[in-house]
């Protein structure tokens, strides 16, 4: 079965600690995304990557970092610099065909999410 | 940049009743338009999308949406709601290498 997996489903962290959220896809998609979801605010883009070893900041990148060493994997690190990290984090991917396909046009396929709580 | 508004935070309908969820966007041209659904504690799933052509778009699970350029709207409809449709629904607007999601509308279905 092709899809996107995120782990863990629930994550607890003490203030001042960095934590890394995992995202893996086996859809052979080129593009991957991280979103933060807070109640009543919809989804906000943290980072996205359209190709291995390249990524771009989204609207709320401060306090977060990512890497894209493999096509299948796009881990997100929530650093201690993120002032309010408690949220639901969603990873997504899209195919981004060579002839086109951008952040505007691609259908995104989402993982089940990780709920991060800072204690 | 584009923006998207979902005016209704929460809607309750009876099972078997019709449903319309509203989505309004702001953008100078016709953007790419999407509707996604999210079940509790889960990721989002695409219901349908519109790029061009016929303004009435059919999607999965019996949903449809109509693009109305004059009203800058892309409302989602379903003729008869099932209890399993209870979820949160997000409208998204894509343009200029950017995607914006609305704040979502939570749908409750009464038996």
Give an account of the 3D structure.
The complex is a heterodimer of chains A (119) and B (111). Chain A has 119 residues and is mostly beta strands. Chain A contains no helices and 11 strands. Chain A has strands spanning 4-7, 10-13, 19-25, 31-37, 43-51, 54-57, 64-66, 76-78, 87-94, 109-110, 114-118. In chain A, strand 5 (43-51) and strand 6 form a beta hairpin. Chain A is globular. Chain A starts with a strand and ends with a strand. The mean pLDDT of chain A is 91. By secondary structure, chain B is mainly beta. In chain B, strands 2, 5, 6, 10, 11 and 12 form a 6-stranded mixed β-sheet that branches. Chain B is globular, with a radius of gyration of 13 Å. Chain B has a single domain, classed as Sandwich (Immunoglobulin-like), CATH 2.60.40. Chain B has no helices and 12 strands. The N and C termini of chain B lie far apart (41 Å). In chain B, 0% of the residues lie in helices and 55% in strands. Chain B has strands spanning 3-5, 10-14, 19-21, 24-26, 32-38, 44-50, 56-58, 64-68, 73-78, 87-95, 98-101, 105-110. In chain B, a hairpin with a 4-residue loop joins strand 8 and strand 9 (73-78). The chains are: A mainly beta (119), B mainly beta (111). Chain A binds chain B through residues 4, 35, 40-43, 45, 90, 92, 102-105, 107-113, 115, and chain B through 9, 31-32, 34, 36, 41-46, 49, 51, 90, 94-99, 101-104.
């Amino acid at each position: 079965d092709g899809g996107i997996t995120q782990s863990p489903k629930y994550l607890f962290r003490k203030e001042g600690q960095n934590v890394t959220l995992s995202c893996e896809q086996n859809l052979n998609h080129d593009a991957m995304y991280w979103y933060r979801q807070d109640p009543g605010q919809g989804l906000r883009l943290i980072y996205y990557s359209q190709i291995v070893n390249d990524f771009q900041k989204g609207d709320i990148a401060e306090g977060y970092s990512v890497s894209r060493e493999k096509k299948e994997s796009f881990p997100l690190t929530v650093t201690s610099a993120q002032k309010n990290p408690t949220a639901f984090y969603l990873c997504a991917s899209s195919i981004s065909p060579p002839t086109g396909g951008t952040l505007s046009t691609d259908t995104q396929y989402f993982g089940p999410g990780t709920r991060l709580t800072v204690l | 940049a584009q923006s998207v508004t979902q005016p209704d935070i929460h809607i309750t309908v009876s099972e078997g009743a019709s449903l319309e969820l509203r989505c309004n966007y702001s953008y100078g041209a016709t953007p790419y338009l999407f509707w996604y659904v999210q079940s509790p504690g889960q990721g989002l799933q695409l219901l349908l999308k519109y790029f061009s052509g016929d303004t009435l778009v059919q999607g999965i699970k019996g949903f449809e949406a109509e693009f109305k350029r004059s009203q800058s709207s892309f409302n989602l409809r379903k003729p008869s709601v099932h209890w399993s449709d209870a979820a949160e629904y997000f409208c998204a607007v894509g343009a200029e290498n950017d995607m914006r999601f609305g704040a979502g509308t939570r749908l409750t279905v009464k038996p």
